[in-house]
């Protein structure tokens, strides 16, 4: 739906990262299901004035945590703690969600360090719900 902005202002934010607010997804399913997450590409898209050094891999910088799970299923692959978001290779975050109305919540954390020039880095994150 909407964009998530996580401005990394100042050296403290660049060095220790920044966390997003919690987001919630409400869904209704007529079958048991799994939920996977992935980025739309392996690297962020860069907008800015730098001409080199802007190839920021998503998996090295962006992570996600499942903060709330009301699906009847299990948080998988360690996503009850922050884990990296892979570009183009989905990772299951919830397994065996149950039929009916349910929801889950998540947060992002970005931690680019000081390895990349200033600018705007963007990517699309895809959550896929598949029949279990």
Short description:
By secondary structure, this protein is mainly beta. It is built from 2 helices and 11 strands; from the N terminus they run αββββαβββββββ. 8% of the residues lie in helices and 45% in strands.
Largest sheet: 5 strands, antiparallel
- What's the SSE pattern? HEEEEHEEEEEEE
Rounded to the nearest angstrom, the distance between the terminal CA atoms is 24 Å
Roughly what percent helix?
under 10%
Q: What global shape is seen?
A: elongated
Number of E-type strands: 11
- Count of alpha/pi helices: 2
Q: Report the structural category.
A: mainly beta
Portion in strands: over 45%
- Runs in which pLDDT lies below 50 for 5 or more consecutive residues are none
Rg, Å, rounded: 16 Å
Indicate the multimeric state: single chain
Summarize model confidence as the mean pLDDT: 90
């Amino acid at each position: 739906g909407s964009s998530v902005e996580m401005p990394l202002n100042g050296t403290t934010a660049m060095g220790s990262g920044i966390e997003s607010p919690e987001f919630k997804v409400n869904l209704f399913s007529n079958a048991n299901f799994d939920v996977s997450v992935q980025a739309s590409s392996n690297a962020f898209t860069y907008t800015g004035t730098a001409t080199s050094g802007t190839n920021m891999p998503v998996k090295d910088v962006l992570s996600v945590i499942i903060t709330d799970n009301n699906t009847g299923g299990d948080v998988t692959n360690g996503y009850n703690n922050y884990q990296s978001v892979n570009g183009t290779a989905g990772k299951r975050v919830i397994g065996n969600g149950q039929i009916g109305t349910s929801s889950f919540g998540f947060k992002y954390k970005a931690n680019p360090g000081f390895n990349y020039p200033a600018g705007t880095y963007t990517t699309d994150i895809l959550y896929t719900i598949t029949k279990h």
